[in-house]
Design a protein that fits this description.
Uridine Diphospho-n-acetylenolpyruvylglucosamine Reductase, domain 3; binds flavin-adenine dinucleotide; 4-stranded antiparallel β-sheet
């Protein structure tokens, strides 16, 4: 199919982009176009004006400021995954990006676009939630920021106002010696995940858990943190038994839906498996875990 007619405007500055967005209540931002163009072609989106932010080179950056890794709105997924600051400070972000679609998608798709788009099967909203990221935006009322915990409100829905543009996402860096893991299950390589999990684990030198962060995606209309499993782990030795128990507790608190791709039971079972395995993999990346017997 072909898209419904629309007006195309390429903004030269962030201010111009905000003005263009405000001028048409049916306007939409286009960044990498990797989600929006298919939606236009299928006529699932019919914007009056497309405001292209691709020329905003000032927003094409990755930086580390005050303990946060910041990714600007026009930085592509491929560039972010390959960036030395990401490799050094936030490898879990690179690992998550590597599971997005195919290289052609990652070469044009942006990190901020994925977060603004908020597909519940997408990797990056879950990473943002696991790390308590801040989403920075700009609109007619000036700058605004959203905590990831309240940003993702439902399938393809966020707290972002229609006249606001995401300008950057700030990921707080995990404390030193935090282990991490990212895993997902998809039917084929490059497909959207059925279920995925992000785990971050910090222990003391003896292997007692000081902090656990877990986020699942593909099990609800938004990514979900697993506070019961996180609390169960904290203060306990990081053992395979503890990880299995955390997985059981996590599964008990999930209420996934069934669809043509997978049943609710299957998603719950896969989620539990991923919680246990990502915790074990995250522990293996901690100083205590890397020397412990598996
Ligand atoms: C074949 C295929 C496979 C894919 N597989 C995956 C996958 O496995 N995992 C995954 O997560 N994604 C997948 N994607 C989607 C891809 O990751 C997109 O790049 C991403 O979802 C959106 O980023 P974008 O920059 O392309 O945004 P666009 O497509 O340009 O925009 C998407 C939406 O976000 C809004 N938006 C974008 N940027 C901003 C901004 N800065 N401020 C406000 N609103 C904004 C747009 O208005 C639009 O509503 C796939 C896409 C394709 C075509």
């Amino acid at each position: 199919m072909k898209p419904a007619p629309f007006t195309y405007r390429r903004a030269a500055t962030l201010g111009e982009a905000v003005d263009l967005l405000a001028a048409d209540p049916d306007a939409k931002v286009i960044a990498g176009g990797q989600s929006l163009v298919p939606m236009l072609n299928m006529r699932l989106a019919r914007p009056g004006t497309l405001v292209d932010i691709g020329a905003l080179s000032a927003l094409d950056y990755v930086d580390v400021v005050a303990g946060r890794l910041e990714v600007g709105a026009t930085a592509t997924q491929a560039d972010v995954a390959a960036h030395p600051l990401v490799r050094a400070h936030l490898p879990v972000l690179a690992a998550a990006i590597a599971r997005i679609g195919h290289s052609q998608i990652r070469n044009r798709g942006t990190v901020c676009g994925s977060i603004a788009h908020h597909d519940p099967s997408a990797e990056l909203p879950a990473v943002a939630l696991a790390l308590d990221a801040e989403i920075l935006a700009f609109g007619p009322r000036g700058p605004v920021s959203y905590a990831a915990a309240s940003f993702f409100t439902g399938t393809f829905d966020t707290a972002l106002a229609a006249d606001e543009i995401v300008t950057a996402v700030q990921f707080p860096l995990p404390a030193p010696a935090t282990g991490w893991a990212f895993a997902e299950v998809a039917r084929r390589s490059g497909d959207f995940a059925l279920v995925g999990c992000v785990a971050l684990l910090r222990t003391d030198a003896a292997g007692t858990v000081e902090e656990a962060r877990l986020a699942l995606f593909g099990v609800a209309s938004t990514p979900v943190r697993l506070p019961e499993a996180e609390d169960l782990l904290t203060g306990r030795p990081a053992t395979a038994e503890a990880f299995e128990e955390a997985a059981r507790v996590a599964a008990e608190h999930l209420d996934p839906g069934s669809d043509s791709h997978a049943s609710a039971d299957y998603r719950r079972e896969v989620a539990a498996h991923l919680v246990a395995t990502t915790l074990a993999d995250a522990f293996a990346r901690t100083p205590a875990g890397s020397t412990a017997d598996a």
